[in-house]
Amino acid sequence: MPTLAGKLLFWLSFISLLSIKTTTLAQVYYICEEDSNHTTNSTYQRNLHTVLSILPRTNTGLGFFNYSAGQDSDTVYSAALCRGDINPDECLSCLNDSVAYLRDLCPNQKGAIVYYDYCWLNYDYNTILGNPDDDSTQVFLYNVQNASDSDGFNKVVRPVLNELIDQAAGGDSLRKFATTNRTGPDFTTLYGLVQCIPNLSGQQCTDCLQAAVSDVFFKRGGRIGVKVGLRVLQRSCNFRYEIYPFFNGSTLVTSPPPSTSQPPTSQGAPPASSPPQGKSSNTIVIIVVVTITVCVITILAFVIIKRSRKKKNQQMPHTRNIETETLDISTVESLRYNFNTVKTATNNFSNENKLGQGGFGTVYKGKIGDDQEIAVKRLARDSGQGDIEFKNEVLLVAKLQHRNLVRLLGFSIKGSERLLIYEFLPNASLDQFIFDPAKSTLLDWEKRYNIIVGVGKGLLYLHEDSRLRICHRDLKASNVLLDAELNAKIADFGMARLFKPGETQGDTNRIVGTYGYMAPEYAMHGQFSVKSDVFSYGVLVLEMITGQKNHCFRNGESIGDLLSFAWKSWQNGTTIKMIDPVLKIGSSSLQDIIRIIHIGLLCVQENVANRPTMASVVAMLNSFSITLPVPSEPAFFLHGSTDSENSKTTKLSQLTTNDASISKIVPR
After folding, report:
1. Which residues pair with 342 in a beta bridge?
2. How confident is the model at residue 288 (pLDDT cuts 50, 70, 90)?
3. Of 184, 256, 479, 486, which is most buried with the most CB atoms under 10 A?
C-alpha cells in the first residue's frame, strides 16, 4: 500500500513532467556583422551596453522584447523573442545568456544576431523590425534521416504547416505562435511549431512563413530530399517540424505584466460594477483552500526530499552501483588515498596549483612525497552527473592498462568530496597545442602522426583488445593528454559505456559528449556504438591536419564547419589547401598527409556501416600498402546561408548543455 509521502512524490513528479527544463541550450547559431565596428568607449558602445542592460526588462508579457537608445548614427536598435512555449524564468535566462554570449563573441561589431533553441536576440545600427520581408539571414537545419514514404510524409507536412501558419497569423499583437501534432505515415506522429514576431500584421506573418516554407520545399527539397525533421530560423518568423516531441505540449506562457498604476477615476463617473457577493466569497474560499493545499504539499515534499538526501549522504558512496556495471568502488579499495594527504599535496586546492576546469570539477597539480607529481580532479559537490563520472572512472580506468590511456593512480572520498588522482602529464591537453598559433609549431608532421596513431591504438584497446569492451563517447582534442615526449593518452572516461558480451551498440535518452565530435546517429537518436567513437576520431584527425577547430574552420575570409570543407576539398582535388600552413612538408610527407585525410574522411561517413572499425583504421595507419576505399559524404548538422552583399561573417557553433542531455566539458 503506497504511503502518503509516496503518493505526494508521485504526483509532484507527474506535475513536473508537464514543464520543460530549458535553461541551458544545446545549439546556437550566431552572426557578427564584420562590415561595421565600433570603437572602445565610443558613444555607440555606451548605447549598446545601455540597450542590452535594459532590453531584458522590456517584456511585453509574452516573451517579446524591443528597445532602442541613442541618436542618429549612434542609435542602437534591439529586439528579442522567446519561443512561445517557454515559461517566464526560462525565457529571461535564455535572453541573459544571449546577451552575455554576443558580448563575448561579437565584442566590437555594431550588429549581431544569435539564435538559440528557445530564443533569439538581434541588435543593429539599423532598424531591425521595420521590414519583415528583409530576412536576408536564414538558418536552415535538418534531420539527416529521410522519410521512408516521402509522398505520404509531404501530404501530412504541408497541411500541418499551413494550418499552423493560419493559427499563428491569427494571433494578437502580443503573441503569434502555434503548435500541433498529427499522425503521419507508418503511424509516426509529426510535431510542428511556427512563430512570428508579434508586431507583424497577420498578413505579414503569413507571407513570412509561407516564403520560408516555399523556399525549403521548392528550392532545397530536390537537393536534400524529404527529411523527417526540419527547422528554419529567420528574424521575423521561424518554423520547425520533427517526428518526436520538441516543444512543451502545455504551452506555458508569460502572463501579461500587471499595470503599475490605476487610472484616476473622475468624481462624476459611476463606480465600477463588482461581482455578486456570493460568487466573490466562493472564489475567495477556493483560492484560500488551493493555496493552503499547495503550501502543505510543497512543505511535505521539501521535508521528504531533504530526509532522502540526508539518508543518501550518510551512505558510503562505495556501496552503490554504477550505470554501466554491477561492481562497486569497494572492489578497488586498494586505490583509496587519504583525503588529507591529497589536500596537502595540492596546497589545499590552491589557485596556484590549478591546472584547469572541466564540466564536473577542477584539476589541480600536486606532489606526494619528494618526487611523485600527480594531477587531482576534484569533482563538483552535489553533482549527480559528477558522481556517475567518478564511479565510471574509478571502476573502468582502474582496470585499463595501456600506454595511450591516462593512468589512474587512485581516488579519495570524504563526505561529499570526490577526488580522482592521475599521473601528472606536463604538456596538458592536445587542444592547448594544436589550436594555439605559437605552440602548434612544436607539433611537426612526425609528432602529429604519432599522436594520431597513439589515439587510434588507445581506442582500439578500448574497443577490442582490453578484457572490457568500452565506448568512450567523448573523444575530443581536450580529452587527449600529452606526456613529456608528446605521446598521446586518452583521458576522461566519465561518459564511457561498458558493453556486455555480445553487445555491439546501445541506446540512451541521455545524450552526453560534445557537439561537433558527435556521430549523427548518436546526437539525433541516442544510438551509440564503437563506430560513434570512430566518427569522433575522424573529426580529431582532420583537426590535427588543419590545426583548426571543427566548428569554426576558417578558409580565407569565410568561416564554416571542418567536415564540409574537407569533403568539398576532397571532391575538388584540393586537399592540399586543408593542411596547416605551419607544417613544413616535402613530397613524401605530403603523400602521407593526404592518405591520413582520406582515412579521416572514411571515419566521418554518415552511414555507420561504411565507417571502418578501429582495427581497420590502425592497420591503414601502419601499412601504406593497404588500398583505401572511396569515402562517401560525411554527416552535416548545420547548414546556414547569409546574404553575401551585406558582407556578414557566418559562424557556426555547437554548444553543450550542463543538464541531463548534454555535458559541458571545458578543456583542461
Report:
1. none
2. low
3. 479
CA atoms within 13 A on the CB side of 495: 27
pTM of structure: 0.50
368: which 3 cell numbers? 606526494
Residue after which a domain boundary falls, among 405, 423, 441? 423
Write the pLDDT tens digit of every residue in 348-407.
999 999 887 765 678 899 998 778 899 998 887 655 455 666 777 787 777 788 999 998
Amino acid at 641: S
Domain CATH number, residue 335: 3.30.200.20
Q: How many CB atoms lie under 10 A from the CB of residue 61?
A: 15
Domain tally, the chain:
4
The mean pLDDT of 4-13, rounded to a whole number, is 36
Q: How many helices (H) and strands (E) does the chain have?
A: 16, 25
* Catalytic residue numbers, as ranges: 474
Whole-angstrom distance, CA of residue 305 vs CA of residue 313: 12
Residues 521 and 557 in one domain: yes
Question: pLDDT higher for 504 or 642?
Answer: 504
What is the DSSP track for 589-630? HHHHHHHHHHHHHHHTBSSGGGSPPHHHHHHHHH-TTSPPPP
DSSP-based three-state secondary structure for 11:
helix
Q: How many residues does the chain have?
A: 668
CB-based contact 513:521 (threshold 8 Å): no
Identify the H or E element spanning 384.
helix 384-392
User: Does residue 586 fall inside a structural domain?
Assistant: yes
Tens of pLDDT, residues 159-174: 899 999 999 999 888 8
Say yes or no: 418 and 440 in one domain. no
| Residue 78 is assigned to a structural domain of this protein | yes
Helices within 423-509 (DSSP H only): 431-434, 445-460
3-state DSSP assignment of residue 105: helix
Same domain (yes/no): 159, 218: yes
Same domain, 488 and 585: yes
How many CB atoms lie under 10 A from the CB of residue 494?
Answer: 29
DSSP state of 272: P
CB 118 within 8 A of CB 139: no
- Phi, psi torsion values for 493, nearest 5 degrees: -105, 20
Boundary-marking domain end, from 188, 223, 242? 242
Cell of 186: 507508418
Whether 282 maps to a domain, the answer reads no
- Domain residue limits at 37: 18-124
